[in-house]
């Protein structure tokens, strides 16, 4: 069986000093450097493959400290605190002796409890009734995702016509791949920068920090398989060079798998 | 002039090894141990007082790794990366040789740009038209905040009647104190656990991770002064032992100062 490009992209090789060696993936290239979602997945993976790991991810915060250059990188993951059922990780990604990413991860052994989704999946057409974009996007990482925009897709005219930043889309890996925590953390970063949509204007942008809360456990991800996820994103504030984004990802069965937030630098 | 209890609570004393020594504050005590909001503010303060600090806070993530015991603690803040206009910090709080909190902070020198609040302040009565709770709350830290609940206050009857987790309230320090980044990060944690409101049932809870995005800069906080903040909070999902909370804080002039999220452990 052929290895999926995402599995190649997040592959880490254990080093003698306890760190992990990885390499950026041309298949997930962005305009300059790699797609940040895959960088986040690589950081999370340093915890997922760690021999000391306890439980499954609950929370991931990734801070993009500097542009990641195409090429190799080193990741170190340290369990700063291990409790009976929760664990707290500090992660750093290094290139050429310099920190390019910091992250914290909380993992836990979950137990079944009273549960309820308060944020219901919005009513929207089924994936098979939503068209793919007419023009394929030339950016490499975008080709690694099947995206079916329902509303708030990339503006077709850059006329500064400014409207709501709300987007909804169906999304899954291309080619399809069974969902897991690493893939989910990458998809959490799939939304185009809200400032493009709100202003219908292209300005330089870069995610500064992203937080992902995993509501799903491993079994729910298995049950979701390679089905579509409904993604929804909107901004709450754009202010003096930084805007935020608040997003949700549901599976086709309507279960809220992830809520995620990020703060993004923008110029002008 | 008498020192405000919050300033006493977040006070850190530089140590010879570059760490900072602090002490939990009885004035901000919770049922067991200190109020997490003040613990978050203490962690942020280790960056704010650091001689290497560049700019102002943009993003703060605090992970509550273990129960903080009443007493002294040590904080270390390290600038993992300093760029031209942004800086990335890793913070750890230690008690008795063990990590009790991990945090990351992004700071930046902000520039004036096109700005817009997409999430407008909800229509609600003015602070002077909203009553204080009839029964004063016996918990010490709650007395340090003037809270005027508009909707979704603490249930008055614990009858498992379950309704929306949405809360709105006016809040400010008690006694009033000019707003700053440390105070804002504490107030970001002021909302009662959503699971209490959603279920009208008391269950054991504890915040695991909290992220704060600061949309306001120092000047906007100065302009806000000691006025009220409108806080709004709701949950998106409760699932197998963890729920999330998404919240906003506006000043009386209607400017969105902070968006904040947390994931909280709950039992049963």
Task: Provide the descriptors you would attach to this structure in a database record.
homodimer; 268 residues; alpha+beta; Porin; 13-stranded antiparallel sheet; 14 strands
CATH architecture of chain A: Beta Barrel
Average pLDDT figure of chain A: 95
Assembly status: homodimer
Helices and strands of chain A, in order, run as: HEEHEEEEEHEEHHEHEEEE
- Radius of gyration of chain A (CA) equals 18 Å
Percent range for β-strand residues of chain A = 35-45%
Give the tally of structural domains of chain A: 1
Layout of secondary structure:
The structure is a homodimer of 268-residue chains.
Chain A: H1 5-9, E1 13-14, E2 20-23, H2 36-48, E3 56-64, E4 72-82, E5 86-95, E6 98-108, E7 116-117, H3 140-143, E8 145-151, E9 167-173, H4 181-187, H5 194-199, E10 205-214, H6 218-224, E11 229-234, E12 237-239, E13 242-251, E14 256-266
Antiparallel strand pairs in A: 1-2, 2-4, 3-6, 3-10, 4-5, 5-6, 8-9, 9-11, 10-14, 11-13, 12-13, 13-14
Helix pairs in contact in A: 2-4
